[in-house]
Amino acid sequence: MLPLYWLTVQTVGTAIRGGWRPEVSGLEHVPADGGVVLASNHLSFADQLFLGAVIPRHVAFWGKKEYFTGTGPRGALNRGLMHGLGVIPVNRAGGAASDAAFESAVPVLARGGMVAVFPEGTRSPDGRLYRGRTGALRLAQSCGVPVVPVGISGTDEVQPRDLLGRHRPRVAINFGPQIDVAGADVRTATDALMASIQRLSGQEYVPRYAEKKKAA
């Protein structure tokens, strides 16, 4: 485990586990080693924090490429944090640029690492679960690794001030059995994956892609 990631788990992760006491089930489905893709619903930025806090191994998340290309002292600090946490850069432009981001995750999986993917492609705009894109399945197939579905609930209500106050939303993280996607049709397998995530998260399902929020 990367030193900075380990330190973050020991500090931020400990605060999350002690402060919000997330309910975790199915953690035995997450392999202790070896390459694996975590495929989760996406309600909030806090999803990454909670996943990192409850999984006892390094999880590689995605970060916008701008964090890696900034200039000056702030840019250098961001780059150092991203590399220290093992973040994978992603171009939010989509298309071929996003495909290149998936390619950058291949070495992580080849080394036996764990990569978290949010198949919806963006945070849910209304708390419902939207149709999944096939990238997670294509990535898993290309690397010959299994997929572990994850259903998260409650993180859309988490605010930093909750740790100091009495209101702490109930957060639950449910892991499902590993899915072997070798040889499967990626569209069919992705739909089955989203059905599994729906059962784990309890969300209402919407059979269309979620639209990304436009910057103001």
Automatic annotation (TrEMBL):
GO terms for cellular component: plasma membrane. The keyword Chloroplast does not apply. It comes from the Bacteria. Coiled coil: none annotated. InterPro entries: Plipid/glycerol_acylTrfase. The keyword Thylakoid does not apply. One of its GO terms (molecular function) is 1-acylglycerol-3-phosphate O-acyltransferase activity. Residues 36-155 form the Phospholipid/glycerol acyltransferase domain. GO terms for biological process: phosphatidic acid biosynthetic process. Keywords: Acyltransferase, Transferase. PANTHER family: 1-ACYL-SN-GLYCEROL-3-PHOSPHATE ACYLTRANSFERASE. This is 1-acyl-sn-glycerol-3-phosphate acyltransferase. The lineage of its organism: Bacteria, Bacillati, Actinomycetota, Actinomycetes, Geodermatophilales.
